[in-house]
Amino acid sequence: MSESPESTRAKQTVGAPRTIPIEIPPGDAHNRQLVANVHPADWRNPTPSGRYNLVVIGAGSAGLISAAIAAGLGARVALVERYLMGGDCLNLGCVPSKTLIRAARMIAEARRAQACGLLASAPSEVDFGAVMERVRRIRAQISREDSARRYRDELGVDVFLGHARFGGPDTVEVDGARLRFKKAILATGSRAAVPAIEGLEAAGYLTHETVFELTELPRRLGVIGAGPIGCEMAQAFARFGSRVTVFDVAPQVLIREDQDAAKIIQDALVRDGVELALGAKMVEVRAAGGASFCKPLFGDTRT
Fold it and tell me: pLDDT grade, residue 122 (50/70/90)?
């Protein structure tokens, strides 16, 4: 079926690239490939034509799947992202964290090799740089699926890289371009909440947005929060060889889970060498000698 001039999707790009170059440390080939896929520096936003059936703001998991499904049903779709397409899942969450956890599990299993009947001695040292290089490599390989060019060329979505703002009840403006729409989806995600702990900002800290930038294994690591992410990162880094302490005001890990289920996880963490400071309210973090020290106010539980 032929398309009218107004309904033809804007495939041609015009003008100079509007995107701001993004660098993700460390600046190796894997991270350069990632950025080239999900926020290419030479990207030129299309010229909007006509009215979109759907404008999606945010190209994380929810935004990508919404845009892909709508375009597959024949809708005219615009997808707007100001940072990295793929969102948390590709860049900061599911892909890098599960790759890291897989490496930690392999290392733990190798250390138990003799108990499984293998004659080789269990390894005692970990090349953490190689672990993180593999994380970056796998993330870069997968990034093609979430890339701006794939969504434009294969799925027929008009991809706009830039900051979106509503200009009216049926318009979105992206770097000077005005997108008219019938429906809009906000899929802008969330950010890590930094607790108001005295000295934390000055001492320095990692979040899920920066932990995968590490290239050297921390000798000691304090994890504030014994939820699912805190537990999985604590166990992984303990298996790599860090001395890990988990702090939480709750009396158990995974406070939203049943006690018997949480105890299974708690016992596993302890077996892997994780120290648990539970029932502890964090009141101060201070830096000394190149390291950061936490001062918790303890309740009754410490494992």
Answer: low
Per-residue buried b or exposed e for 121-154, using 16+ beta carbons within 10 Å of the residue's own CB: eeeeebebeebbbebbbbbbebbeebbbebbbee
Core vs surface per residue 24-43: b (16+ CB within 10 A) or e? beeebebbebbbbbbbbeeb
Q: Which of 43, 8, 60, 87 is nearest to 185 (CA)?
A: 60
List, for residues 68-112, the tens digit of each pLDDT value.
Answer: 999 999 999 999 999 999 999 999 999 999 999 999 999 998 888
Give the chain's domains with CATH numbers. Answer: 1-190 (3.50.50.60), 200-298 (3.50.50.60)
Distance CA 72, CA 78 (A): 13
Bond from prior residue into 228 cis (ω within 30 degrees of 0): no
